[in-house]
Predict the 3D structure of the following.
Amino acid sequence: MTDLSDLPPARSGRRAPAWPGVPLLVALALWTYAVRHTDVSRLDDYGLVSALHPAFWAGLAVLTTGFWFTVRDARRPGAWSAAYVLGLLVMERATQALLYPTPLYAWAWKHEAVIDHLLTAGGLQTADQVGDMAVYDQWPGFFAAQAALQRLLGVDSAAMFMAWWPLVSSLMLLLPLLLIYRTFTEDRRLIWTAVWLFYVANWVGQDYFSPQSVAYALHVGVLAVVLRRFGRSAVRRGRPRQAVWTVVITVMIVAIVISHQLTPGMLAVCLLALCLSRRYRDWVPLATTVVIFLAWCLTAALPFLSAAMPDMIRSIGDVGANVETGYGATPTGAGAIATSWAARLLSGSVLLLAAVGVLRQRVLRHRARPLLLVAAAPLPMFAASSYGSEMIFRVLLFMLPGAAFFAAAALLPRVRTLAADAAERETGTPQATGAARPRRWGIGTWVPLAALLGGTLAFVPAYSGKDRINYFPPQEVALVRQLFDQAPEGSLVVAANRNYPDAYASYGSIGHYWFLDDARSHVDKIVRDPAATLADDMAGVERPARAYFLLTQGQLANSEMNGQLDKAQLDRIRTSVAASPRFRLVAENGAGWLYVLKQSGGAER
């Protein structure tokens, strides 16, 4: 174990202040006031950042400052640091759930549609039945569990609770993170600062209602068990106990493998990295992961992998292509660019702090080397796949537990061993390895606080800066649901992109075509002659099915901010469709328009 023993008490010889909860209460009061006085009805390109009441930023600053001065005092009970971290999670992850009347993220709505289809179909289906959506039936763990939860709660839809999923999934990570960090240090200051930095730097967005949110929590949980129970000292304590923990991680690994495609691979490389350390040269966890993963890939997931394997093989080793963004993934406009840079600077700062922590904390570099290996293990995945242009974000996410630990070490005084302290007390001479004791209110206090405060504030634009894309107002939800309520089986829905609520509703019986996913040459053709081109694309639908054209606020925001078509081009498409005699307006409101293609032969409804 290690100890930050050269950090002096907050007030030597004096009783510590009795009210560390005052800043926490003030911060939560300011946050409550801000939530009550924030209007999200007119989001701009800066998302929630510009919409938030100034009291929110003041509350976040007070919370961070209070946490720093509380966690630095070794005499404080750990419960106070835990309370501040929980306050951070509430401000980070509950704000959107309280402010927005509908759940965020088109992908969350997509997963809700998968659960609904699973309940309706009564079982798993193949590509012949549901096309590309069959991939979710080949990794059904999360969706089956959510379907069971939905029935248990007696709710009609997962939309009833999925807005709160970011908070729930973040809380699921707390215990395994604490177990990991306590494996390498007993110092509460280092542990809780690392937890704080983990949540601050976790802007990637894996926490929304998705299989990856649960799979990632289970991934961190497996690492926690392996790091604490599969080291040399744990093995010496007895094989029977080891067998119990093997069963525990096996259950967790099975849940990961049947729920998500990427996480088992990340877990395998992390466990392989641990095997490079003499302390964790136990091949059982790695072998268990590989065997279960391969068994699933060669059975239930084989249809998807057979079709995807040629592209996957071509992407191996092509690092440049795996990390570059494609058409529709380039931030456009001041708000989107600012959000992108906030996220990059936040991640870059944490990784830089982690490097500083590794260099200056010699004791941790030795004692926590397994955690350093776990942090570095995901890097080779850059060469494996692009993962839909998201691999760079996933690598950062899986590096984060280790990176946050060493970044926290960079903000705290230099670590020394207990043996060094004992030698110093015996000789009365400071050891060469020791660090000078920092002054209470010196640079060692304010510079780390500034870094912590900057990272905490930067989380908001990195995480919520694209809420103009991710938020669908009630009017947009109502318009889309009106479409699917009236669309006959076999109908086709044409839209600019899939960024709207319920975009995958009834995907077993209704087709979808998002023209911005098509070849750029065809998109240019639509821009030149919108109504005629779209009408030709939609003409193959036969009665009683219908072909609908849907354009909504979410599609417009996604296209503009991600470098697809700008507002003028999208307005031209809508105007052309509205003026065409081949289309009829079905419904419109402040969030979008719905048209149907008129069918020849018979009276038009």
The chain has 30 helices and five strands. Confidence is low (pLDDT under 50) at residues 1-14, 417-424, 430-439. The CA atoms of residues 47 and 191 lie 33 Å apart. Strands lie at 492-495, 511-514, 547-552, 583-589, 592-597.
